[in-house]
């Protein structure tokens, strides 16, 4: 009892908005585990050059004599292929972490660009209203009525291969989701009292839009961003697997899986499986984190 | 009803025209097909002949006009690689893709709805939790990865089912399909399952959400109070009401099944139009790419139209006259 009284003066961490958010997020053990795994994956991808025995794309370090080694066999250079080696003699553990880097980079970068574009477009639509809004939202609806993979295929068919082109295609696929979310939230925020108050204070519409409304659109935006990044990573892997995504010189996880596919029918499962597991784990964890964020950040579900 | 139909058809035509424009300029403004068509040793005369033959020397606007004119007549150019009309090439492969997509849809509905309704009626049971966890997996797993796994378990490890091709094609009532032969059926199981899983998760989630909502409605309570059997309540009151969103989404998703069949067909070497698209992209066969995209856009818009009409027939609250609400 006395403990509670003494604490009443200063707000405890768990009563701050972030503390409430954190404790509600940690309610779910699965989501917490997913977040931890995700952080580990990202850290591994970032520090890949320092924790792998070889740089799989430095030809001087790769020996064709080491091709298609089973997991656990020893390389010519002395280290062990813990996850085996692929058709060109690359250590799969190294190739996987390097691939993870490229996959994550492409997914996150395209997600960020799409978020900026989509937010700007969505806010513009909500702010402008009238014809401009109708036109923008018609365009968004039109694009969302086609499946993402079809739009991506169309763009890749037109643009060709390359990291930059894939990012362009992924941005084009994703921006509409952000635009729709932001516009919807901005519209519902616009009619709230604090916006009315800001307007009465004589703030410029632009300042109301970016200073007042935008910060309040953040929570749905974060949720969409998480889910969309997972989608982007999976989509890039799919396109790369089909041979129309990233070039062989920048092997993402999709390309590694695709390279291993031909060996799988002869029982050399590891070339496809390990990069595949890395891809799945990444996408799955991001989705779980996104799901939990949606539950925590949704004001309708707040008690 | 007629006014509604005319208005919707008009809108659809505008969408098709818009997409045609985007597709044409997108594909034509990138890359030089001349390099593709002639061998590196060809002399100037040979190059000029090819350019003339394919009309590549005309201004882009004129090419666009010719493209639109041809599209209306069902002529979208001749494949650079096959030397056959592109539309014909794709329509030849359409039945195989349709067969796959329809089988996947049927699988998704027949397994998805019962599982979803069950987990909606008993949301706390262990079985429901397993169903829901599985449906999250179905959402997260990329289609191509599931395909690889299916091949690995059922074709490589267990050697139960074939992993490539369409198998023997039988003919029944003038329709050729691999569904009519045992060999063909064996060949379609894996690809159809692969394609169905994503949609199945969606159907499970939709029918679960619908079930949970409908089961709390007054008319269900009333039906219970009336003493109707549980089976009758589920059959007559629940299913009817959850079908509306499920059918809408499934109708729209049928188009995405066709789009996703690109992935499945590539993995299982299914001779459909999706595989043709990937081959054409890799070989820069522009007319086939354009024709594929146009046919898929057309299919899409047609599907949306049909779904809209079915939707309005199923749900009496949707006004057909298009009166402003």
Helix content of chain B: over 70%
CATH architecture of chain A: Orthogonal Bundle
CATH superfamily of chain A: MetI-like
State the distance separating the first and last CA atoms of chain B.
Answer: 17 Å
What CATH calls the topology of chain B is MetI-like fold
Mean of pLDDT of chain B:
79
Structural class of chain B: mainly alpha
Q: Are there runs of chain A of 5+ residues with pLDDT below 50, and where?
A: none
| Number of helices, counting only DSSP H or I runs of 4 residues or more of chain B | 12
CATH class of chain B: Mainly Alpha
- The portion of residues forming beta strands of chain A comes to under 5%
Question: Radius of gyration of chain B, rounded?
Answer: 24 Å
- Summed up, the helix count of chain A is 13
Strand order of the largest sheet of chain B: 1-2
Biggest β-sheet strands, sense, barrel of chain A = none
Named CATH topology of chain A: MetI-like fold
| Record field, number of beta strands of chain A | 0
Q: Provide the low-confidence segments of chain B as ranges.
A: none
What can you tell me about this protein's structure?
- The complex is a heterodimer of chains A (303) and B (325).
- With 303 residues, chain A is an all-alpha fold.
- Helices cover 71% and strands 0% of the residues of chain A.
- Chain A is built from 13 helices and no strands.
- The longest helix of chain A is centred in the middle third of the chain and has 37 residues, at 92-128.
- Chain B has 325 residues and is mainly alpha-helical.
- Chain B has a single domain, classed as MetI-like fold (Orthogonal Bundle).
- Helix content of chain B is 74%, strand content 2%.
- Chain B has twelve helices and two strands; from the N terminus they run αααααααββααααα.
- Chain B has a two-stranded antiparallel ribbon with strand order 1-2.
- Chain A binds chain B through residues 142, 145-147, 149-150, 153-160, 230, 234, 237-238, 241-244, 254, 257, 261, 264-265, 267, 269, 272, 276, 279-280, 283-284, 287-288, 291, and chain B through 15, 18, 23, 26-27, 29-31, 136-137, 139-145, 148, 151-152, 155-156, 163, 252, 255-256, 259-260, 262-263, 266-267, 277-278, 280-282, 289, 293, 296-297, 300, 304.
């Amino acid at each position: 009892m006395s403990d509670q009284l003494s604490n009443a003066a200063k707000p405890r961490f768990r009563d701050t908005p972030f503390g409430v958010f954190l404790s509600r997020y940690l309610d779910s053990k699965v989501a917490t585990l997913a977040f931890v795994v995700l952080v580990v994956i990202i850290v591994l991808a970032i520090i890949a050059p320092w924790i792998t025995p070889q740089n799989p794309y430095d030809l001087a370090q790769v020996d064709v004599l080491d091709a298609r080694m089973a997991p656990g066999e020893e390389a010519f250079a002395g280290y062990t292929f813990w996850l085996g080696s692929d058709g060109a003699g690359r250590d799969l553990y190294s190739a996987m972490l390097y691939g993870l880097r490229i996959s994550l980079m492409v997914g996150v970068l395209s997600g960020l660009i799409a978020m900026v574009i989509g937010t700007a477009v969505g806010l513009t639509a909500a702010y402008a209203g009238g014809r401009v809004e109708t036109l923008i939202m018609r365009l968004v609806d039109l694009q969302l009525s086609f499946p993402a993979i079809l739009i991506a295929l169309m763009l890749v068919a037109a643009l060709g291969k390359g990291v930059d082109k894939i990012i362009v295609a992924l941005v084009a696929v994703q921006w509409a989701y952000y635009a729709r979310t932001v516009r919807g939230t901005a519209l519902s925020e616009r009619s709230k009292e604090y916006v009315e108050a800001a307007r009465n204070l004589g703030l410029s519409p632009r300042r109301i839009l970016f200073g007042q409304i935008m910060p309040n659109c953040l929570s749905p935006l974060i949720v969409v961003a998480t889910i969309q990044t997972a989608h982007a990573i999976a989509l890039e892997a799919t396109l790369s697997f089909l041979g129309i995504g990233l070039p062989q010189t920048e092997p993402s996880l999709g390309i590694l899986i695709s390279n291993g596919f031909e060996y799988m029918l002869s029982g050399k499962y590891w070339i496809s499986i390990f990069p595949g597991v890395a891809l799945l784990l990444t996408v799955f964890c991001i989705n779980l984190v996104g799901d939990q964020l949606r539950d925590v950040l949704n004001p309708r579900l707040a008690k | 009803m007629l006014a509604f139909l005319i208005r919707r058809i008009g809108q659809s035509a505008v969408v098709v025209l818009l997409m045609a424009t985007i597709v044409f300029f997108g594909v034509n403004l990138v890359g030089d097909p001349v390099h593709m068509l002639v061998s590196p040793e060809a002399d100037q005369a040979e190059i000029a002949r090819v350019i003339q033959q394919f009309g590549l020397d005309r201004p882009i606007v004129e090419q666009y006009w010719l493209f639109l004119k041809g599209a209306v007549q069902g002529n979208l150019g001749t494949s650079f690689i096959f030397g056959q009309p592109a539309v014909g090439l794709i329509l030849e492969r359409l039945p195989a893709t349709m067969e796959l997509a329809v089988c996947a849809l049927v699988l998704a509905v027949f397994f998805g709805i019962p599982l979803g309704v069950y987990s909606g009626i008993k949301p706390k049971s262990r079985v429901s939790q397993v169903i829901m966890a599985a449906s999250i997996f179905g959402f997260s797993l990329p289609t191509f990865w599931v395909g690889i796994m299916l091949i690995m378990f059922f074709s490589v490890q267990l050697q139960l089912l074939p992993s490539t091709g369409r198998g023997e094609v039988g003919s029944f009532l003038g329709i050729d399909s691999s569904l009519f032969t045992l060999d063909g059926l064996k060949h379609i199981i894996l690809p159809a399952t692969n394609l169905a899983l994503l949609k199945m998760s969606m159907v499970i989630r939709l029918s679960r959400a619908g079930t949970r909502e409908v089961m709390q409605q007054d008319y269900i309570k009333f039906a219970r109070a009336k003493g109707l059997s549980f089976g009758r309540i589920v059959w007559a009151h629940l299913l009817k009401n959850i079908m509306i969103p499920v059918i809408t989404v499934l109708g729209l998703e049928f188009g995405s099944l066709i789009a996703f069949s690109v992935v499945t067909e590539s993995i299982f070497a299914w001779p459909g139009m999706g595989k043709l698209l990937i081959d054409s992209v890799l070989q820069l066969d522009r007319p086939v790419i354009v024709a594929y995209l146009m046919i898929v856009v057309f299919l899409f818009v047609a599907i949306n139209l049909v779904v809209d009409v079915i939707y309005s027939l199923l749900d009496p609250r949707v006004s057909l006259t298009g009166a402003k609400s």
